[in-house]
Amino acid sequence: MIVVEEKLPKHPDTRILERFDDGTGKNIHPVLDRVRATALKDFKRLGIPAGKNERYRYTAVGKLLDRPFVPLLHPHHRNFKVEEIFRCDIPTLDTLEFTVLNGFFFEEQETLMELPGGVLVGGLRQALKQVPQLAEAYLDNLSNTVNDGLVALNRAMATDGFFMYVPDGMVMDKPVQLVNLVKDDEDIMVQHRSLVILGKDAQAALLICDHALSEQKFISHGLMEVFVGENSAMEITKLQNEHNSMTDLSSLFIRQERNSRVRTNTISLHGGLIRNNLHVILQGEGAENQAYGLFLMDRKQHVDNSVFVDHAAPHCFSNQLYKGVLDDEATGAFDGKILVRPHAQKTEAFQVNKNILLTDHAKMNTKPQLEIYADDVKCTHGATVGQLDEEALFYLRSRGIHEYEARMLLMYAFAHEVIREIKIDPLQDRIHELVDKRLHGELPRCHTCLVDYHK
Fold first, then answer.
1. Fewer CB atoms < 10 Å away: N or C end of the chain?
2. Where are the alpha helices (DSSP H) in 123-175?
3. 90/175 Cα distance (integer angstroms)
4. Structural domain total, the chain
5. What local confidence, expressed as pLDDT, does residue 440 receive?
6. Mean pLDDT, each 10-residue run in order, the chain (455 residues)
7. Residue 455 has what pLDDT?
């Protein structure tokens, strides 16, 4: 007897989809069900990215599925309050704080919160029920354009997340802080997605904090789509500080309209495996994008930053600066690409990746790229991988500074170039302190977190 089966990826991807066959992942919301149907087909076609996938060449994400992680499609029962187990480690930061726990919006209220000026904040499922025309008009407009198996898996499995809408002309006076927490007694896989919409002439700042509050082996993938309207400005800062058994996957998609300005800051202080995808399309003339990243890895940790900036309109500007410090046997990767389309004349685009290796066992792979189809542009790219400047180290030691402290000063100065781009002053000060402690091997923990970061 010959059985003909649909050809699936070689990796054990199909067991993740078994939960959908028993109906637990269906009938959550008509829009999410439609997205899921398309995404499942994409995932079966693409699978988990393997070694032949150039964008994931240096990150073995296929091995992540060797363990039977439990995918969460509905929130687990909880018998605790978030404020009892987690308090922000930046007490001087005055923010509007919201929590996503294991992929689900945690606040007890069943409707979106309406802030002054008509700003709406809440869970994604709440938005689809309360403001369906607004949410449906934007959801899945960016992430469905990418041939990425991990993104398809998120679109297939995510059933909730975060939603924020800032109407035309609204300038928010406080940053919004989104705290993504993972806590469970099992090894779970968490998929959550977020939708952020800024109207015309609006301004907002978003701080995203990723934390794991128990020591199980977790996989967390957050997918966020951000739409920035004409003449609007937004700053997005992401802080990753998790234990060595944590796999943190992040996919951020941004579309910018005419004369909009967006600044992203990705600070990776700790984590077993971190993969950050940033996909930006400059859709309107005169748009400006600034992308900054800093990562500090040690032991056998791994971090991978993939950045793609699409100049789809003329007179746009983009700048990328990613810097990393790798110690012990840590490994890192940077894959950056700038695309300038034929009609995107007068483009200015710059890309730099700088890395310091503190040991002979640390390893960094970097691949900056330019793909230009216009002839009136200013574009540069470059990358460096090396050790601390011996001349600078000698200069400091000749002034009576101990070698250890001299090394710390040089690394701190190296990191400062990225940290100074954070425009929320209390946050910049606190991250300076966190980076200083991280460089000295003193990883700060949340007030009541009992996770062993050195495991």
1. N
2. 124-130, 132-138, 149-157
3. 13
4. 1
5. 73
6. 35 52 58 86 84 82 68 60 53 78 79 91 93 93 86 89 96 92 83 95 94 81 96 95 88 97 94 94 97 92 95 97 91 95 96 92 93 94 84 75 78 82 81 78 47 42
7. 44
For residue 18, the model assigns a pLDDT of 57
Q: Which residues pair with 326 in a beta bridge?
A: 297, 357
pLDDT of the residue at 371 = 95
Contact, 259 vs 229, CB < 8 A?
A: no
- Give the integer Cα–Cα distance in Å for 190 and 16: 12
pTM here is 0.89
- The tokens for 40 are 């499942």
Residue 281 belongs to a domain:
yes
Rounded CA separation 105/370 (Å): 39
Q: Provide CB contacts within 8 A for 269, sequence distance 6+.
A: 239, 240, 241, 295, 296, 434, 435, 438, 443
For 313, other C-beta atoms within 10 Å of its C-beta total 22
Q: How many CA atoms lie within 13 A of 429 on its CB side?
A: 6
Residue 452 domain-assigned (yes or no): no
| DSSP tally for the chain: helices H, then strands E | 9, 21
Q: Are 357 and 384 in contact (CB under 8 A)?
A: no
> Which domain range does residue 82 map to?
14-439
Cα–Cα distance measured from residue 53 to residue 276, given in angstroms and rounded to the nearest whole number:
16
pLDDT confidence of residue 87 = 53
DSSP states of 27-61 = SS-HHHHHHHHHHHHHHHHH-S--TT-GGGTT--G
CB 140 within 8 A of CB 148: no
For residue 411, give the 3-state DSSP assignment: helix
